[in-house]
Amino acid sequence: MSHQIDSGRIMELLAVIVLTSYFPILTFSFFKYRLSRKKQELEKILQRVNLSSNEGLIDEHVTKEYTQRDYYLPMAFVTMITSFGMVMLLAPWIIYGLPTDANDEAYKSVIFSGSHFWNSNAFPIEKRNVAVVAFAIMGSFIGGSQYIYRRFATIDLTPGNFFSVGMRMILSSLVTLIIAFLTKDAGLNQGNHILAMAFLIGLFPERGLRILISKVKGFKNEEESQNNRPLEAIEGISELHKLRLSEVGIDNVQNLANFDFFQLIIKTPFSIRLLLDWVSQAKLMVEFQDHYCELQKAGIRSVLDFIDAVKDGNSKPSRDHEKERIKQIAEVTGTSYMAMEVNYFNFVDDQSVKLLLHMRANLEVLTVKT
Fold first, then answer.
1. Cα separation of 132 and 196, whole Å?
2. Residue 36 pLDDT > 70, yes or no?
C-alpha cells in the first residue's frame, strides 16, 4: 500500500510539473521556431507587393519587436500562479501534509475526489475553498492555454498575453470564492455544483462577474447593461477573439463599431474580410438597438446587408426607389419606417461606412496586410 501511495504522489508531482511548464515550453518554441516563420512571411509579403527586401532589416525589425527579456517577468508571473493552482488541484498533500496511515482522509486529490475532498474533519471549510479556487484556476488554465496557443500559431504572442492570462486566473478565483460565500445557504456549494461553477467561471470570468453583480442588490445598473452590449453578441466573435480585441481597447459592440478600421487591420491578426463582417454587424446593432433581431430574421445581419437590401442591386438607385424599399423592409421586420429611413441615409453619408463599402469592393486586391 505504501508503495502505491508513493507512486501516486510521484505521478501527481510529475503532472504538476508538466502542466506548469506549458507556458515556458511554448515561449521557448515561439523564439526557437515560430519567429523564423515570421521572417519568411515578411519576405513573402514584400515580394508580393513588388518591394525589394532586405533580409538584414527584417531580422532587425523582428528582433526589436520580439525581445526575449521582455517575456521573462510575465512568463514567470503566469507560471507561478499556474503552479499554485496545479498543486491545490493535484497534490494537496503538499499543503496538508502526508497521510499518517492508509485510512487517513487528509490525503485526497481535489480533481478526482470532487466535493468529497472536504468531507473530513481536517479543515473542512478551508479545504472546500481550496477546491473551489483550484477548479477556477484549472478552468482559467485551459482557457488561457487555448488563447496563448492561438497567439503562438498566428505568430502574435506578446508579453502582455501572459499577464492577461495570469490576471484572469486571479480574477476567476476571487469571483468564484465570493460566489461560494454568497451561495452558502442556497445549496449550490453542497456537492459538486460549486466546483462545476468554479470551472466554468475560470473559462469565462466575465460571465462570473455578471453572476456576482446580479446577486448583489443595488449594484446592477439595467440601463448601463443594455447600452453596453458584449462582444459575444457579434456573430463569429468567440471568447478568444474577445480577449484579442480587448487588448486594443475594444470592450463592447459600441467600441468595435466606432474603432478606426485601418488601425484595426494593423493592430490585430484577423483578416480584412472577417473585420469587415464584424464591424458592419456592430454598426447595424448600435444604430437599431432593440430592432436588430427583427432585421436578422429578415436576413439583414450587417450594415452592408442593409444598404444592399435597400439598393436592391442598383448602384445608383433613385430616392423614390430607396424609400419604397425601406418601406417594404420596415413592413417585413415590423420596424418604424421613420427610424429605418433616418438610419439608412445616415449610413449612406457616413464616411466610415463608405470606407467599408470601398474595402469590400476591393477585397480581392487587399489580400495582403502591409
1. 9
2. yes
